[in-house]
Amino acid sequence: MQRSIIKEAKTVDEAIRLACEELETDIDNVDVEIINEGNKGLLGFIGNKNAVVKVTIKPGIDDIIVDFLRPIFEKMEITANLDIIHEEDCITVRLTGDDVGIVIGRRGETLDSLQYLLSLVVNRKTDGYTRVILDVADYRQKREKTLVRLANRVAEKVVRYRRNVTLEPMNPYERRIIHSTLQNHKYVDTQSIGEEPNRKVVVRYKQGNGKYH
Q1: Most-buried pick from 99, 105, 151, 198 (CB within 10 A)?
Q2: SS3 category, 162
């Protein structure tokens, strides 16, 4: 929840300074609303009015994340625990709870959509670009391992029969895993075809490489 304070002083600058001192922060971390600029009055003292400002601490990234996700979970009628992990240029939000599996959706589509929206919200309210990863009970790690195994298994099949194999439609995150896993493979390469949301990866046999052992 945002913390705000209304402060009155002889000048706007002084009122802001006093508010920041009480909030134990500095001006770079607050939003300022000038309620009344004040005036010195007639002859400098008759009708003198103090300046009045409202100073609000800017929400931190964790607050932004919680304020965005909590109402969504309430609408979905689920209780989720949020573990927010800050790394260099990356924030990982892990969700745990008895009924959070519904957030994953079919092939992770709901999770990916929610991650995309959360990334927009975070980066709109912060400086620079921060990668945001939303995960449910380590779903992404498990899914990545599954896709790596799939990529290697399909590559073996492609080399054995020297025929291209087209995988099922995948989202951009999953396609990147397939491409990355096989990018240095000696006998196959990969290509994405089709249009979203039915874009697929094709694992292709490289001609002229001899027999694969």
Answers
A1: 151
A2: coil
**Predicted confidence (pLDDT) at residue 213 exceeds the cutoff of 70:** no
Task: Please report the DSSP string for 58-112 in residue order.
Answer: PPPHHHHHHHHHHHHHHHHT---EEEEEEETTEEEEEEESTTGGGGT-GGGHHHH
Residue 46's pLDDT is: 52
Terminal Cα distance for the chain, rounded:
61
| Residue in 93, 88, 87, 103 with CA at minimum distance from that of residue 66 | 93
Residue type, 79: T
The architecture of the domain spanning 61-137 is 2-Layer Sandwich (3.30)
| 86, β-bridge pairs | 91
**Right CATH number for 4-57 from 3.30.30, 3.40.50, 3.40.190, 3.30.310?**
3.30.30
pTM of the model: 0.66
